Amino acid sequence: MKESSKDQDFALIDRARAFALGAHAAINQRRKYTGEPYATHLAEVAELVTGVQGVSAEMLAAAWLHDTVEDTAVSLALIEAEFGACVGRLVGELTAISTPDDGDRATRKTLDRTHTAHASAAAQTIKAADLISNLRTVEARDPLFAAIYMREKRLLLDVLTRADECLRTDVRAIIDDYFTRQEADEPT
């Protein structure tokens, strides 16, 4: 008996979830500021993407896998072999391309931002969900770094022109709220 399309979609998402969770758990990756298992971040990004209009199984699979190549020993070729060309392309679009040899932080972030600017609407939507998840924890846990991070992410948001508009609005609100509060705290 042939699986239905919906069953195949669920199987793809479930395999991607299990693969990503396994890859991050194998290196005992934790969230930087909270110490929670990295699975928390992956689940949050996937949940945000689930609510997007027109979401596909490939987008949800890539949401689970979005940090796997960047943070673990898993190669993009393996992602593509395991999950297909579409998921592989999305994960590639979501993976930072800069290396420490590319220069200082500002230079590396510019390279990565340019890479993201050319990403598909689906990849940019996943990136917006990733930003929401990360922005929620940085300010409270590392106020000194937050100022740098928020400026970088404001620049990144400017290139996410094809991302889901609701997620872009949420990212912008988090960033704008941060800068509004910073301005209010400045001495007059």
Would you mind describing this structure in some detail?
This protein has ten helices and no strands. The protein has a single domain, classed as Hypothetical protein af1432, CATH 1.10.3210.10. With 188 residues, it is an all-alpha fold. The mean pLDDT is 94. The protein has helices at 5-26, 39-50, 57-65, 68-71, 76-83, 85-94, 105-117, 121-141, 143-159, 165-185.
A few lines on this structure:
The chain has 188 residues and is mostly helical.
SSE string, helix = H, strand = E? HHHHHHHHHH
Describe the sheet with the most strands: none
**CATH architecture descriptor text:** Orthogonal Bundle
Task: Assign the CATH superfamily.
Answer: Hypothetical protein af1432
Low-confidence stretches: none
- Whole-number total of structural domains: 1
Give a count of the beta strands, DSSP E runs of length 2 or more. Answer: 0
CATH topology: Hypothetical protein af1432
| Binned strand content | under 5%
Supply the helix-strand structural class: mainly alpha
Mean pLDDT: 94
Rg, Cα atoms, Å: 17 Å
Under CATH at level 1, the class stands as Mainly Alpha
Tell the overall outline.
globular
> What is the overall number of helices?
10
Approximate helicity band: over 70%
Kindly report how far apart the N and C termini lie: 72 Å
